[in-house]
């Protein structure tokens, strides 16, 4: 196991980006319909490319991120709670930087709903019993631990399989 904090942090950031992209595509209107965006649809590139050019992946990511964030916020609330689509500002900046530098390397995650399901399965750690609605995962301090991504991926994967909406979140101020 790698004990270098920089490598662990980079790995966690890439896991979060992969989680966001996988949940993003599976939550869109043409798949599970949790939110009404179509940023990850196969045809979206045709509309986004003239405006964003080589940055179309980043535009798709930002678009689906905002769509998912709004739906999570509606179900969880905004304030003293964080969720996979609304994290502390320092983490959000690292995520933004990772997406800007990753470019084409992230496209495998969003190639199709099947690829997104496979990504969630790779990230998931267990097969939890999932209930519809907000799902408390713990306090905000757990966001520093890499295990939360696997737990969130497990909840999302189970929710998509069961045909219900589940919104993992953390409590506390940072």
**Pairing-aware structural class of the strands and helices?**
mainly alpha
Order of strands, widest sheet: 1-3-2
Oligomeric state of shown chains: single chain
Shape: globular
**Kindly state the mean pLDDT as a whole number?**
89
Q: What is the number of independent domains? A: 1
The percentage helix is: 40-55%
Helix count, DSSP H or I runs of 4 or more residues? 6
State the end-to-end CA separation: 29 Å
Order of helices and strands: HHHEHHEHE
Briefly characterize the structure.
The chain has 174 residues and is mainly alpha-helical.
Walk me through the structure.
- It holds the Pfam family BrxE.
- InterPro entries: BrxE.
- The protein has 174 residues and is mainly alpha-helical.
- The protein has one domain.
- 54% of the residues lie in helices and 9% in strands.
- The chain is built from six helices and three strands.
- Helix 6 links the parallel strand 2 and strand 3.
- The chain is globular, with a radius of gyration of 15 Å.
Q: Can you give keywords for this protein?
A:
174 residues; mainly alpha; three-stranded mixed beta sheet; 3 strands; globular; BrxE family protein; BrxE
């Amino acid at each position: 196991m790698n004990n270098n904090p920089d490598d662990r942090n980079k790995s966690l950031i890439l896991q979060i980006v992969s989680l966001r992209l996988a949940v993003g595509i599976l939550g869109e209107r043409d798949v599970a319909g949790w939110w009404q965006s179509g940023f990850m649809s196969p045809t979206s590139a045709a509309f986004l490319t003239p405006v964003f050019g080589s940055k179309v992946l980043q535009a798709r990511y930002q678009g689906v991120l905002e769509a998912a964030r709004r739906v999570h916020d509606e179900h969880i609330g905004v304030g003293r709670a964080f969720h996979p689509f609304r994290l502390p500002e320092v983490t959000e900046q690292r995520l933004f930087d990772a997406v800007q530098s990753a470019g084409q390397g992230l496209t495998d995650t969003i190639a199709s709903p099947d690829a997104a399901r496979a990504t969630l399965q790779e990230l998931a750690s267990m097969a939890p019993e999932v209930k519809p609605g907000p799902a408390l995962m713990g306090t905000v301090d757990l966001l520093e631990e890499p295990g939360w991504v696997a737990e969130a991926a497990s909840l999302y994967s189970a929710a998509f399989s069961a045909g219900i909406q589940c919104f993992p979140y953390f409590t506390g101020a940072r």
